[in-house]
Amino acid sequence: MYNEKVINEFRNPRNVGEIENYDAIGTVGNEVCGDIMQITLKIEDGIIKDAKFKTFGCTAAVASSSMATSMIIGKTIEEAKKITNSDVIEALGGLPAQKIHCSVLAEEAIGLAIEDYEKKKAENK
Amino acid sequence: MIYLDHAATTPLDKEVLNEMLPFFSEDFGNANSQHTYGQKAASAVIKAREEIAGCINAKPSEIYFTSGGTEADNWALKGVALAHKDKGRHIITSKIEHSAIYASCKQLETLGFEVTYLDVDSEGFVSSDTLKNAIKDDTILVSIMFANNEIGTIEPIKELCAVAHERGVLFHTDAVQAAGSLKLDVKDLGVDLMSISSHKFYGPKGVGALYIRNGVKIEKLISGGEQERSKRGGTTNVPGVVGMAKALVKACAQIDENAKYVSSLRDRFVSAVESKIEMIKYNGPRHDRLPNNASFSFRFIEGESILFSLDLRGVCASSGSACSSGSLEPSRTLMAIGVPVGTAHGTIRFSFGKHNTVEEVDKTVEILADEVNRLRQMSPLFKQDKEKKEYV
């Protein structure tokens, strides 16, 4: 069902956890649907210095979270905004059709975290 | 690999395989042919029918071979509904039936039948009073499963059947999970129809049977030749029915010792899981339960990722909800017994078999505790410091 890359990301996920004193947080999904993804970010000078996730969900949801957080670390906010679920799927070497929505959650969680950061920044001005 | 999914299917017993083998090759005859080859096959089918009838205290003329449990269930419901439609159009079943029954009922609804889906209690039991109150003047059939495939609840079939018969209503039971594990005596139970499936008791896949009490009117589902006393067309699956008979005879001869052994493994597993893993819910009853079944909901984590984690470490179990099959609909059974949707998502069924060992049980508990902990560390819902009782 899953390829080696997906299995590896699931077995050895990168960036698990919650950043202390994070600059931004994004949470999507709910328990009833069976998927929740929470992403926290540390941002300095417009660059994502660190990203961590906590995920309640299936194998594909965990693998997507791991891959998506790894992809945005070191990127500028503008670059991170451009990362789509297709990019996450490609990096994972593909996902089964019924699991595509898991990668969408990763994109949405990152989007919400960045929105959260920009909102806070605007408020502090 | 540690196989703990015997409710899905069982490995074919070697003795059963040997019994079947000649009927694939040298004794290949069509049981309906008049020549020597045909007669040899026909004798084997007669013997198989007698043996199966003997195991459930039926007459050979009351055993009808099918392609499996699903066909037997479909036939029982649709066949009885069509044969009795002039008498009434109301059918009663429960909310926790296998999809073969549930989907047949849904189809019958589109054909003008009315179906009542009975509530069950928090352990999955259907009560006699609930059934009594649901029977109407135009009720033609009650179908309640003998034992539930997800949570193992053994229904009080004899009692429920008596309630239906008091009002002159036919009674069918889907005994697919029970056959081979529990004693089934159709005369003692009083049931009019009963479905069984061979691959649940170490027999081959693709073969099952419907017991139809002599005198019960039923329409055929599969039209064709004169097989099964003209009630079910199609060339008889000779190796299949030979294998099913051998498997059932063997299972029935060892039924008490197997039940005792398998339930001892299950009980060891359940108490170890309950002592080693926090924030879990054991689904289903602790009495009147299939000897092989254990169902747990692990809070804060999702079933597919648990299953896959176990599989990667050599343990094969089954998801308690349908999420793993790509649908996000949680299991009807878990919803009916009142498991919250979020909790239902983290449900795993373990079903033990006669080849499992104590070592396998202990190893599974160790791996399970490890993987549940690993996934919980990743879950945004899991907070170590919260009160246990809040989540179960």
Largest sheet of chain A: 3 strands, antiparallel
Name the average pLDDT of chain A: 94
Main beta sheet strand tally, sense and closure of chain B: 7 strands, mixed
Q: Helix/strand-derived class of chain B?
A: alpha/beta
Strand content of chain B: 5-15%
**Rg of chain A to the nearest angstrom?**
14 Å
The strand order across the widest sheet of chain A is: 1-2-3
Please write the string of helix (H) and strand (E) elements of chain A.
Answer: HEEEHHHH
N-to-C order of helices and strands of chain B = EHHEHEHEHEHEHEEHHHEEHEEHHEH
Tell me the strand order in the biggest sheet of chain B: 2-8-7-6-5-3-4
Summed up, the helix count of chain A is 5
Helix content of chain B: 40-55%
Could you describe the 3D structure shown?
The complex is a heterodimer of chains A (125) and B (392). The longest helix of chain A has 25 residues, at 100-124. In chain A, a hairpin with a 2-residue loop joins β2 and β3 (47-56). The mean pLDDT of chain A is 94. With 125 residues, chain A is of the alpha+beta class. Helix content of chain A is 47%, strand content 22%. A 3-stranded antiparallel beta sheet of chain A has the order 1-2-3. In chain A, α2 packs across α4 and α2 packs across α5 (100-124). Chain B contains 14 helices and 13 strands. In chain B, β5, α6 and β6 (170-174) form a beta-alpha-beta unit. With 392 residues, chain B is of the alpha/beta class. The model of chain B is unreliable at 322-326 (pLDDT under 50). Chain B folds into 2 domains: 14-253, Aspartate Aminotransferase, domain 2 (3-Layer(aba) Sandwich), CATH 3.40.640; 255-383, Aspartate Aminotransferase, domain 1, CATH 3.90.1150.
